[in-house]
Write a structure and sequence with these properties.
Layout: H1 9-19, H2 39-43, H3 131-157, H4 160-165, H5 170-194, E1 203-204, H6 211-233, H7 239-262, H8 278-285, E2 289-291, E3 307-309, E4 368-373, E5 379-380, E6 386-387, E7 397-402, E8 405-410, E9 412-415, E10 423-428, E11 444-450, E12 468-476
Antiparallel strand pairs: 1-2, 3-4, 4-10, 5-6, 7-8, 7-11, 9-10, 11-12
Helix pairs in contact: 1-5, 3-5, 3-6, 3-8, 5-7, 6-7, 6-8
The structure holds 2-acetamido-2-deoxy-beta-D-glucopyranose (9 copies).
One 2-acetamido-2-deoxy-beta-D-glucopyranose (NAG) is lined by residues 68, 71, 291-294, 296, 383.
Pfam family, one: Ferritin_2
Signal peptide: 1-20
Biased composition (Polar residues): 56-66
């Protein structure tokens, strides 16, 4: 492997954060032997002896699909599983605080207003405090591991000339290499919070065949990495884990935006970033994991049937909206095919990397979006050992999850189930604003097929899961 030497900012930058975690309080993962094995030599990172070590991981992993026999099937389940979450009501205490601008309770100390969680002097313990915490953090770790491999894989597969043809410089490649180092830190941080059984790095398979597709995949994968964490962050029992995860997910958010800039898209066309449930992130991630090592810790989240956007917007549809049919490389990420001969998107303005680009609208309200979805029961994910499922009835709506909004359009089914079991239909892109002057449907967003059009807001969106027929898919609204 050839890596450009990048200064050790990665290792040093992480040190104060982890060092701030009291020794012996966090369940720290035992490191065997040398710190960051595989990294120091392969990535030009040098390690300081005083900083905590990074978690070791294979320096090279296979990139082939899994072809063996699944060793187990389905998500992890507890010894007892209930029938569903009932719909509740507003808790009485939710509305008792007067919100009148005054201090309504005695202050526990000078300059300290009453209230808050974890503010009474209790020593913080940065660990998982429930199954919900563990499974959420473990999912985030699966995501950090794939990002680490993905950022390295593109640099390995495509030459500096290939990147240049797609409008990216050597410094842009160095930035991607640095992003891989950030992932080493993120994976270490989450592993330390999870303890000895923290999931390990796996083997992956990627859909891209040129730089344009690689950037599109990275831009879309980091979107669900970021949004998947926003979906659960505020629900964690462990305020301490939430605190550290916030400080890493904000770095991921920057990565997502940089990949948009690498594609020549407008860097942030929304006022709010979207959050989605864990099972949505897992549905999007699992298809790209071929196999995981023996003894791998498994996840409890659901894999929904795949959903493919047949006419996915991209830079090629800017100020036009007409996308070629069948222009995606498959469900989940719904990467748009690039031009195999010149590393650019198949058609459209040659943006190249830019800080910002007034590229115009890639999609518009009223746009007809063609969809194809799979039936449940497909083996997917690590060692094909998970199975797609749905508990919903017939698909009637497409849910659009963007910014603060969860909204629906009706689904017209054109084929209930083709010979190979896929359904087909279309919907119309809805027209709504989050606030006046902020069209809600823009940027890299999520759509799914549902059997109901019930109301959800960002904090209770995971309640939609029993109604998901297929998806989510990534939709490139702008
Ligand atoms: C501080 O808060 C925690 C939970 O929020 C509680 O368990 C603990 O008893 C409190 N400590 C004191 C000294 O009040
Ligand atoms: C998954 O498959 C790989 C490759 O065949 C194998 O090495 C590994 O042990 C399997 N993983 C598990 C958890 O069994
Ligand atoms: C819009 O894109 C389609 C397909 O790429 C192309 O055939 C058409 O000419 C474009 N229209 C405009 C107005 O650019
Ligand atoms: C898209 O693919 C479907 C099924 O493979 C095919 O029936 C259809 O003609 C294709 N459409 C275009 C425009 O290529
Ligand atoms: C791909 O790029 C080549 C060389 O620049 C060009 O001739 C061809 O038209 C492009 N194909 C598409 C589908 O844009
Ligand atoms: C998305 O935002 C960009 C940048 O503000 C704007 O040019 C574009 O028209 C918007 N797209 C839609 C569908 O509103
Ligand atoms: C299912 O068959 C259709 C043609 O009827 C084809 O376009 C599509 O790619 C197939 N999907 C899968 C998942 O094999
Ligand atoms: C979009 O979100 C805003 C902010 O939460 C909300 O006020 C508005 O009603 C939502 N719009 C729709 C159509 O759901
Ligand atoms: C989700 O929360 C909103 C209020 O923010 C409420 O109107 C809606 O009924 C809730 N949905 C469910 C299924 O509980």
């Amino acid at each position: 492997m050839k890596w450009n030497a990048v200064p050790l900012v990665g290792a040093v930058g992480l040190a104060p954060l982890v060092a701030a975690v009291p020794r012996g309080v966090v369940i720290a993962r035992q490191q065997s032997g040398t710190p960051s094995s595989g990294m120091s030599s392969s990535m030009g990172m040098s390690a300081s002896m005083s900083a905590p070590p990074t978690r070791s991981h294979p320096s090279s992993v296979a990139h082939t699909p899994f072809s063996g026999t699944p060793y187990t099937t389905g998500a992890v389940t507890a010894s007892s599983v209930g029938t569903g979450i009932p719909m509740g009501s507003v808790s009485p205490e939710a509305t008792t605080y007067p919100s009148n601008g005054n201090l309504n309770n005695p202050e526990p100390a000078p300059y300290v207003p009453a209230g808050g969680l974890g503010t009474n002097g209790t020593i913080p313990v940065y660990n998982a405090k429930s199954d919900f915490d563990y499974e959420s953090l473990a999912l985030a770790l699966y995501q950090e591991w794939i990002e680490l491999d993905l950022f390295q894989d593109g640099l390995r597969r495509f030459s500096a000339e290939d990147f240049q043809a797609a409008g990216l410089s050597k410094a842009d490649r160095d930035l991607i290499a640095f992003m891989a180092e950030q992932e080493v830190g993120h994976a270490t941080l989450i592993s330390n919070m999870l303890g000895a059984e923290a999931p390990q790095q796996c083997n992956y398979n990627y859909p891209y065949t040129n730089v344009a597709e690689y950037l599109d995949f990275c831009q879309k994968l980091t979107r669900w990495g970021e949004s998947g964490v926003y979906g659960f962050l505020a629900h964690l029992d462990s305020r301490e884990a939430a605190s550290l995860l916030t400080l890493s997910i904000t770095t991921e958010a920057r990565q997502q935006m940089i990949f948009r800039q690498f594609q020549g898209l407008f860097p942030m066309p929304v006022w709010f970033e979207v959050g989605v449930p864990q099972s949505w992130a897992w549905t999007l991630l699992a298809p790209y994991i071929s196999s995981c090592p023996e003894g791998q810790t498994r996840l409890a989240w659901q894999n929904f049937p795949g959903l493919q956007v047949l006419n996915q917007p991209s830079s090629a549809t800017a100020n036009n909206g007409t996308a070629q049919m069948n222009n995606t490389l498959g469900p989940a990420a719904n990467v748009v095919r690039g031009n195999k001969t010149n590393n650019q998107p198949a058609t459209g303005p040659n943006g190249g990397a830019r800080v910002t680009h007034d590229i115009g609208a890639l999609s518009y309200p009223g746009r007809q979006v063609y969809l194809e979805w799979q039936q449940p029961g497909q083996e997917i994910g690590p060692n094909n050992s998970y199975v797609t499922s749905t508990s919903a009835g017939a698909g009637q709506y497409v849910v659009w999850v963007s910014q603060l909004n969860v909204t629906y359009s009706s689904l017209t089914v054109t084929e209930q189930g083709t010979s190979n079991g896929t359904g087909r239909g279309y919907t119309i892109q809805p027209d709504l604003e989050t606030f006046q002057g902020d069209p809600a449907i823009n940027g890299t967003i999520f759509i799914a097929i549902t059997d109901s059009d019930a109301v959800y807001t960002p904090f209770n969106l995971s309640q939609i899961n029993p109604h998901v027929v297929a998806g989510p898919a990534i939709y490139q609204a702008g």
